[in-house]
Amino acid sequence: MKLLKLTSLLLLLVTGCVEDSAPPNIVFIFTDDHTARALSAYGSVINKTPHLDRIANEGMRFTQCLVTNSICAPSRAVILTGKHSHINGQLTNGNRFDGAQQTFPKLLQAAGYQTSLIGKWHLQSDPTGFDHWQVLIGQGPYYNPRFLIPGDTIQIDGYTTDIITDLALEWLETHRDPLKPFMLMYQHKAPHREWHPSPRHFELYADETIPEPPNLFDDYSHRASPAAEQGMTIARHMNVDDLKLTPPWSMNDEQKIQWEAVYGPRNIEFREANLEGDDLTRWKYQRYAKEYLRTVAGVDDNVGRLLDFLEQHALAENTVVIYSSDQGWYLGEHGWYDKRWMYEESLVTPLLVRWPNQIQAGSVNHAMVSNLDFAATFLDLAGAEIPNDIQGRSLKPLFLGETPDDWRTSHYYQYYEYPGYHCVERHYGVRTDRYKLIYFYNRDEWELFDLEKDPLEMTSIYDDASYGETVTNLKAELAHLREFYAVPEDQRPTGPCIPNERGAPIPQP
Ligand code: CA
């Protein structure tokens, strides 16, 4: 079998199929909940991500990649379909993805690509449109994961971020057909809650203090009512598992002993300190941020392994490597963890793209792009036709340094999951280069932010008369976008949402 594949590869080289004109392979590296603030390519002051930075240094970094619905499963459905949530049907994490609909992996298969999906899927229904798939069940654990494969499950001992990489490299090396271009979706669980690091990172940042965001102690006083009524504060809503006062639930006995040796003494020290008020919140922030960053370090190591593999197997030249996350994330901004809001930290997601000989190394693109554009981009890269019903646009011209004159200057956003985890009220809105108008439609409350003057979005100026014309213009733009994307009124029933406060006082284990 190996000999046959080697022969095929030689044949491929001799016949000259590996030329610039050959459709490129695509490796889509995807994480869950990775904020650009925790990526040194985006100027992080709190951590270093040397391997992810390689993609930016050798390719292009997008500064304004905006998601359409900042939550896990809906974002994945938008990427697969190139359509907004109200069209693809995945409004919330509670929906089951309709895998019978048109998706880009199916269209890539029709265009002659092999498609492979390894890691986190999180869409309830089985993957469709993939020649090969091995996916975590639901959210998946950080340790000793079980994978769903066609018709069966397999369990593998170890750290999930490492194992997903092992499986991806195994597929690249031994299972793919070298005669065909491929699309590999290599998708991590990390750095999703509950942020359990690899043992090799238990001591990372141990003696450092992570800088706090300036609005860690936000009191939500100058905004509409929803910001104050959510359930995602570090101060009041984290639990003992989030704060690592108990061992990660998915560890085996041996792993728990290793964990206890490091975290046991730290937790005794914490309990003896009897912290209260802001001091307790500061401690929680440090523990949370360090655990989060440790899981990012695990991703970064493994991205390095993948990039090295591509180079060592002569695949780097004709492979487009894309890095992104399903949305951004609050690493303490507004006092929060989690995502969901249209505010900048969870609206913006990282996007890095490397394509040797095509993308200028070290370039930065400020155009307003979106996860809505990924499907069209993948099809365009493959030389496949982009169906008319896809709502996103190909980023390929932007990769080549040619942003079309008619590129979008406003972005439509809508979040639906209320009542739900963290009690973030439903909202839609429009974001332009400078302004953001948000409508909490079940409360009939508006917010307007001037991102130039108030980049942290601390004060809504919706009622400020000097912005009257801006509000009028933005409302017109919002109406236009809702019509353009065929957005129906959200008439699903709503109801009260009571945040579960379990962070203070911290219960004894
Ligand atoms: Ca997510």
Indicate the percent of residues in helices.
25-40%
- Please identify the structural class as seen in this structure: alpha/beta
Spatial shape: globular
> How many strand segments?
16
Bound molecules: calcium ion
Q: Which residue ranges are poorly predicted, with pLDDT under 50 across at least 5 consecutive positions?
A: 6-19, 503-509
The average pLDDT value, as a whole number, equals 94
| Run of helices and strands | HEHEEHHHEEEEHEHHHHEHEEEHHEEEEH
Please report the number of helical segments. 14
Radius of gyration: 23 Å
Instruction: Report the portion of residues in β strands.
Output: 15-25%
**How far do the termini sit from each other?**
54 Å
Mind describing the biggest β-sheet? 10 strands, mixed
**Arrangement of strands in the largest sheet:** 7-6-5-4-8-1-9-10-2-11
Structure write-up:
The structure is a single chain. The chain has 14 helices and 16 strands. Helix 6 packs parallel to helix 10. A hairpin with a 4-residue loop joins strand 15 and strand 16. The chain has 509 residues and is α/β, with parallel strands linked by helices. The protein is globular. The strands form 3 sheets. It has a 10-stranded mixed β-sheet, with helices on both faces. Strands 13-14-15-16 form a 4-stranded antiparallel β-sheet, covered by helices on one side. A two-stranded parallel sheet has the order 3-12. Helix content is 31%, strand content 15%. The C terminus is likely disordered. The site of calcium ion has 5 residues, from loops.
